[in-house]
Amino acid sequence: MKKIPLILMALFLISSPLRSAEDSCKIGIYFNSLTDFNISDQSFSADFWMWVNYSDDSLQFNDALEVTNSKSSSFSNYSQMKKEGVNWVMMKFNSVVFKEWDVSAFPFDKQKLTLHIDHTIYDTKKLAFVSDIGNSAIDSNLVLSNWKIDSLAFYVNNQTYNTTFGDPVIKGTSTYPSVTADIYLTRENSWNTLFKMLTGVYVAFSIVLLAFFVKPSDRLGLCVGGLFAAVGNKYIVESAVPSTVSNTLFDNIHNITFIAIFVVLVVAVISFKWNETEKPVYIEKAKKLDRLSFYSVVAVYTLLNVFLIMRAAS
User: Fold this and answer.
1) Are residues 172 and 221 in the same domain?
2) Which range marks the domain in which residue 203 is found?
3) Which residues pair with 242 in a beta bridge?
4) What's 170's domain CATH number?
5) 132 part of a folded domain
6) Mind giving me the DSSP string for 179-228?
7) Number of CB atoms found within 10 A of residue 251's CB
8) Beta bridge partners of residue 111, listed in sequence order
9) Does residue 12 lie in a domain region?
10) Digits of tens for pLDDT over the chain (314 positions)?
11) Which of 188, 220, 236 is the C-terminal boundary of a domain?
């Protein structure tokens, strides 16, 4: 009969490692404000509340949650209470969060603001997060200048690090419970912004096109004047458009404008040389070159502009 307790104890010891050691807690987020969209500094600021519901009284959350992709972060208004057997922790965060802005499609760009929040004390063997999707939201009164808030995604996204941070129990890597908040934004008034910033370059290019309708000897002045106007517009646009290492929509449009002006200049020089000969054959060839070049340059320039703009807007 003494063998029965021993058998039960053995079964318990064998089965205990298979049981989950995790304590789960429900975690939620509520955004009060999104400010300081700093393109050059690659950051934005976010004020938000976080809360945690859990049953295990031994769990600790004071100074235990961290915004891991923030440049600086602080929390305040920490409170903890128990209601109907459930622990309820609340705290308010103020964070400057790293954001690599992609403005290559400006002003048709869409952005995703992302925050990663880890528990810095317990790994996933001790604690599991469950996202409180039903209560997580963005303040309905939050209005962003030139931006429309599309949606918020809030989900569990445990983070694995290739270090144990010195934990003598863990070997190799360590995984900590983590949640991620993604805020999707779309820029507003895109078409209005586009045409306001491109008016100068299009007027400059139109001035260059007038060169086809004057004497070859007078064309260089129009081409050079239009070129300087286009360069000036590029500097004005760059002072207003967020800078980036990759080419933006405005960079591409200015570049094809410069190429088109150069083509017109080349045609003007050839036409001028042919007219200088005063030979009827070359004068007629110059007129044909002017007509063909005008329609070709206008068609190609227009098609390239439409293609670039529609690709950015899609």
Assistant:
1) no
2) 191-313
3) none
4) 2.70.170.10
5) yes
6) EEEEEEEEESSHHHHHHHHHHHHHHHHHHHHGGGGS-GGGHHHHHHHHHH
7) 17
8) 185
9) no
10) 444 454 444 444 444 333 344 678 999 999 999 999 988 888 999 999 999 999 988 888 888 899 999 999 998 889 999 998 899 999 999 999 999 998 889 999 999 999 999 998 888 888 999 999 999 999 999 999 889 999 999 999 988 888 878 878 777 788 899 999 999 999 999 999 999 999 999 999 998 998 888 887 778 888 888 888 898 888 888 877 766 667 889 999 999 999 999 999 999 889 888 888 888 888 888 889 989 999 999 999 999 999 999 999 98
11) 188
Per the CB < 8 A criterion, the answer to whether 297 and 264 are in contact is yes
CATH code of 309's domain: 1.20.58.390
The answer to whether residues 128 and 65 belong to one domain is yes
Task: Tell me whether residue 10 is in a domain.
Answer: no
- Predicted TM-score (pTM) of this structure: 0.80
Identity of the amino acid at 175: T
Q: How far apart are CA 266 and CA 48, in angstroms?
A: 59
Q: Are residues 243 and 184 in the same domain?
A: no
**Angle in degrees, CA 129, 133, 138, rounded to 5:** 120
Greatest CA separation for the chain: 125
In a domain, 7, yes or no: no
CA 270 to chain centre: 47
